[in-house]
Amino acid sequence: MVSDLNSAIYEEMYDYEEALAIFKMVLKQAQEINDKFWIGRSLRNIGIVYTLEDKFDQALKYYMRSVDIAHEIGDKKGMSWSFNNIAICYTNVEEHLKALDYHNRALKLRKEIGDKYVIGLSLGHIMYCYKSLGDYENAFDYNSRALDLYTEINNHGGVAFICYKKGNLYYDQEEIDSALHYYTISLNKYEKIGDHYMMAGILIDIGEIYKENNNYNKALYFFDRAYKIEKERDDKRGIGDALSNIGDTYYLLGDLDKSLEYYNRTHKIDLEFNDNHHMGISFGKIGNIFEDKGNFDKAVYYYNLAYEEYKELSEKLWMAHRLGDLGIVYYKKGDYNKAIQFLNESINIQNGNGLDKRLLWNMTTLSLISKGLNVEYDVMEIQTLIKKNADIGEELNYYIYQLLEDSSYLETAYNQVQEKAANLEPDVAAKFLSYPIPKAIVEEWEKVK
To answer: CA 164, CA 183: separation in Å to the nearest integer?
Structure first.
């Protein structure tokens, strides 16, 4: 986070234009009386406004001028903050080596000043630079240094934050138990100091881990705790994120009705914010549900709504996802011409951007159409894409079985369906098994086995 800023102007008002006008006025007054300290600080504050507006080139110009002033008057503290904020600009544009250089400059000055709290901030920033560069050995080293320092000065907020960051490092290294351990330490410390904002975020992260590892009941427990905190805080965006995660978990469980309920609640919040990106996400998820239920017309309607939101934002990879969804739905409707059109549009947008799962879906569906029309298709390409995708769901496994006529994919799909059904209440499980794809998988397995 950019530091050394006036919270009354920024965090309460969020009026960057007004803040900029105030700081430029202060700069002019300081220049009139040649108050170098306030000239430097005003330059730095103007840089902060531009940083918050993501205008990093402009921000850097003001920070560099503030460095010159701070150097001239021997203001080590001011210079350290300018170096800190210059580094943050470089981090935001992913120039991590430059960011590392300036964070080290800030750290050197802070050590000379002897302010252990801001030394800890620099250590944490340097940790993030190494993480971004993929150097986890150094990232863990600087994390430990920061943790030791904050423990020494008994700064509970610092300890909580650095433990959270250590959890992130372990998560990146796929050491899930260690990640959960540090997330839990951080969560407990934030609870003691009453930081509900950070608590909600960590609860979401813990829930995500359990969701990714198919422990859906635990995931729901943590997402629900996050939801209750965000509701108490009246943080609408936080409420929306928690609701969306709960909806995702019910979707993965196969409880489509509950999932739809939570997605609709999320969408109402997106409308309040007029948030096109999140509206696109909600529309896409609602489309998934109607597709799974076999209501293809409604699925097309919502996928089109999602696509239009992303098109307005020029978010091409999200557009590719929704075009792929439209192609698959039209395949299910038996409209092969439209299916081919949308699937190829999706593939063209992807253009090697690493959407391996989306590409596998698209190519499998196109190949099924070719197979049905007795047209050649590239089996090797499908097999190569399968190798790139470790996590394949039951529907895609079923499609691959239909394409390659390899019953091992059908068996996997059948087991996935049964596992989902086993985790549902009997009435919900019966409804799930009646949906088109689970029903088709079970019936086909009964024939083949």
So the answer is: 5
